[in-house]
């Protein structure tokens, strides 16, 4: 497959992902000003078919309304200023476009984003900068013996002459792009760690203040590995056991040892709103529990007075007495499965039959048509209160103090999962015991459901993040680059999820619940905007129907689609509130 075909496929895929996620821009919308300029006969700087730019206007208004755009200026880069007319803000927005477009590899931005006239124009570059670049680097070497200033002028003159000749011959002039991908990666990778944390936390605080989180949040906590190559600068290393993927030799082969390199992220996530609440980043060899309290404390701080974490579900990697005791004192109910080698696990199983038993059933259907069947899933749970064999649960955690004669253990509750769909399909699996400091007498099923939602952070946050948002594809193979990429990507995931929530609410108001979801909405937008044009003048832009531009230019359009038979220049100017003298 040739390079032009590859670039076309990349652009098509990026356009589709952009439609689903939305993107960013910085040009200022001035509908009335540009409409008046066209009507007065003023020349147009540039004009394009709307394409993917149709999505930018709406999302920008959303970010501007929230105040998120102000946070971009607070991101600091460790690279000093250089002799360049490209702002760091523009560099940042280009990188965010790459994230939203879902480009698999960073260098794809050259053909899909940097060489796109409409996208780069919205970021703030003019047509000449997009075609010829903003600097002369890599454009050819000056002649030997020439002075520096003369050499620069000679290169500019030669390029201008070549460009002019190509236009005269009506040849296809190659688009260079305003800057190279390497420069963008270098600048983004140089954002300081503190600046990234401030930016991310600022985004979450804004979303919390605008009620994108429920008042009572049932949160999930998990950590995920971000694997890199061994040559990555600043990466960690960990050696661990891994079960081999050999189906035909189950039970006859031991686990193998593997060494992986990379980093790790900790995320506190809201399964209801699909939004992250806090994020931490460290080398892969850092244990899950090491940053657990820190990231949960950050989530509590980000929500502030606007929402409260009422429960937190996490896996066995966070099973730590000190951490659980701290959560209890913060008023947070936790749900975590007990390890099978703990005394409290065996104690809970031995007390089955003395607690509160609850049976829950739910119907579901499999197959279609004649093969459709009704299946009834069953959950049988038992809540057990006041377990005294979890000596590790306390301010001191696990240690020799548990052997003292005057030691009094703190009490824990548990929910024993006697039967559930997983147990039915895996009868040899160990019985799950969920430890909690919450009530298990009235409704043990609530504790089970809160913990069962933990799988959503694995699938919808980490798996989706790695496969669709490419969390493991940073611009450079360095610790700083991965940190910037992860913070910016997960912040973008949060903003696009918040935008979809906001958009669905707006659609419900207009369509009374008949049309929901971003895909249907984007199909409608593309249909409505199929004949629209975007016009640029300096740092301003406006979006018109194609017939409006023609009428403003003095031509008559007899029957514009979707309007009355006759539309005059006066009608269009009045539509955009242009004062007519």
Summarize the entry for a quick read.
The protein has 581 residues and is of the alpha+beta class. Helices cover 41% and strands 19% of the residues.
Description:
The chain has helices at 3-21, 31-39, 54-66, 88-101, 109-114, 117-123, 127-132, 148-168, 181-189, 193-209, 292-303, 321-329, 343-350, 421-425, 444-452, 454-467, 479-511, 518-528, 546-552, 569-575; strands spanning 28-29, 46-49, 216-228, 236-242, 256-270, 275-283, 308-313, 333-337, 356-366, 373-387, 412-419, 432-436, 532-537, 540-545. By secondary structure, it is an alpha+beta fold. Among the domains are: 3-133 and 176-190 and 512-528, no CATH class; 336-454, no CATH class. α4 (88-101) packs across α9, α9 packs across α17 (479-511) and α10 runs parallel beside α17. The longest helix has 33 residues, at 479-511. It is elongated.
Q: Output mean pLDDT.
A: 81
Strand count, sense and closure of the main sheet?
Answer: 10 strands, mixed
* Low-confidence sequence ranges: 19-26, 151-157, 159-173, 513-522
| Tertiary shape | elongated
As a whole number of angstroms, the C-alpha radius of gyration is 29 Å
Helix content: 40-55%
Number of separate helices = 20
What structural class should be given to the helix and strand makeup?
alpha+beta
Strand content: 15-25%
- Distance from first to last alpha carbon: 59 Å
For the secondary structure, the number of strands is 14
